[in-house]
Write a structure and sequence with these properties.
single chain; mainly alpha; 2 domains
Length: 164
């Protein structure tokens, strides 16, 4: 290479020597780890966490949905966040793979008349069509009514017919 090439430009960055350096530094693009770190509520041992992140080959798509659930959990909210694990512990233990709580399993469903009496909706519908054929002309949507929505007198007629 010719020395004349380096006279007016810096060899490392290619910027002309007489050009003023930019006073504003461009912000480096955020990495997945940086996004995780900003979202994690406990900020302890960032370099160690970065090492774990890289070693495990984690991505934000893998971790962020579980982190959102964990942050919203009762354990993490309890006592001002006293039970939030250190981020290194959370990453080392693979806690993003935890199943979490299935809130639908906690839902207590009230028994309906149909479930309490073990009424088969299809059989009940067939009975109603046979016993009240004109009702289908008057109420064409009756085929979509579950037993619990039938008129009380019709429910009672059906119950009387199956208990005989």
């Amino acid at each position: 290479m010719n020395e004349e090439q380096y006279d007016d430009k810096c060899p490392c960055c290619g910027r002309p020597y007489d050009e003023e350096p930019s006073k504003k530094r461009k912000k480096a693009p955020a990495t997945d780890f940086d996004a995780f770190w900003s979202a994690y509520p406990k900020k302890i041992a960032k370099p160690y966490c970065k090492t774990i992140w890289d070693k495990k080959g984690l991505t934000l798509d893998m971790v962020l949905p579980a982190l959102k659930k964990a942050i919203a959990s009762r354990d993490w909210q309890k006592d001002g966040g006293q039970f939030i694990p250190n981020p290194s512990t959370w990453l080392n233990q693979g806690r993003w793979e935890d199943e979490g709580l299935d809130y639908t399993a906690l839902k207590i469903e009230k028994p309906t008349i149909t479930s309490r009496l073990q009424i088969n909706e299809q059989e009940a519908f067939a009975w109603r069509v046979e016993m009240y054929p004109d009702s289908m002309l008057i109420h064409p949507t009756w085929n979509t009514f579950p037993f619990k929505d039938w008129p009380k007198s019709t429910q009672q007629d059906y119950l009387n017919s199956i208990t005989k």
